[in-house]
Specification:
Radius of gyration: 50 Å
Oligomer: single chain
Shape: elongated
Strand content: under 5%
Helix content: 40-55%
Amino acid sequence: MASLGEQELGLLKAFVAGCKSNPSLLHQPELDFFKDYLESLGGTVPPPAAPKAEESSSGHGHSHGGGHGHSHDGAECHGHGQPEPAVVEEEEEEEDFDTPTPEVEHTKLEIPGTEGLEAEDTSSLEMGDGKAAPSDDDAGAASEHASKGREALSNRDFPAAIAAFSDAIKLDATGTRAFALRAKAHIKSKQPHAAIKDSDAVLERNPDSAAGFKWRGKANAMLGNWVAAYEDLSKAQSIDFDDETFDWLPEIKKNATKLKEDARTYDRLVAEREKLERVRRQKKAKRDYDRSASSTSSASSSSAGGFPGGMGGMGGMGGGMPGGMPAGMAGLMQDPEMLAAMQDPDIMAAIMDMQGNPANLMKHMSNPKVAAFIQKMQGKMGGGMGGGMPGGMGGGMPGGFPGGMGGGMPGGMPDFGASAEPAPEAAAPPPSMDDID
């Protein structure tokens, strides 16, 4: 191929500059051959710009110039309505995966128990020693104190009843009767915490005591513990039916049902929140992974631009076309090993030095990495750099070896492999492209 003259080169450079400033030129049908060539080398041609909507003139979309500019034969002009307004598409906001799902906002339902309850201190309440067997005298005295307590309870003298049952428990704490009656006296005195302590003592000695469940259930109801109250009273009824317990149950059941429904609602909201949070974390992890992969891919693509100022996409073609692109260059730029080698600082420094002065090639041959790189490039270019590239690299890669390698090394490229044997004499180099008319 004959070399281009200065005028042709100037036109070509102007054309490339125009393509850089307005890549849409490459989408003209008459330049399809050039666009296909660029894409075959791995270049990317930007998509054509979207056409801008032309604004209408005078509402008709055509000029009337003092009249319509066309004849309607006296008929009314139709088809000149106002143009339809452009539809503005709203950009979709990117979903927020970084903000945690809000915590559940739920006010727990509370149904108060008996009003006017005073604070209690049950630490000094006599509980006796349930493991010590009483003597006959103590057992008899305890029985007498229990009788006095029952009498005071029937007379609604609740403090006296509590004191008498405490004296009985102090002497004999092995039974359940004194504890159950004192629990009842505590209920009548509005002391639910003390009643629960006595009821627990009853159930420790007899787990199937209806009285123990009854008074503990009533005490829980007084404290607003409706679910626990309903469970205790239902258990008491299943052991021994009681009319008083039967009268308490309807209201306690209603309140317990409300609290159970409220608890189920809260549990459902928590479960839904946990599900949303789990999905958010999964989407966030996927988004972060995709971003990382995209960033790595972009960095790899940009770093694989090849020679400095060279094949970096579309913009790298400037100045490289004159004289023609060597046939193996596309394969060279797609070779992973070559691309990796071009990231080596030593190799890139040698390339840049040889760009400034191709005669410095021999200076870098002592570096095995540089020698191996040039040997492989020689093979990729198909024919060798030692006299094998007519006129060098035909005008050079864009920003690459200026003017090529100056006709190559005389006598051919030396063998930098492991063999120490002298290379065979190279054939005489063909004439330079500058000598071809």
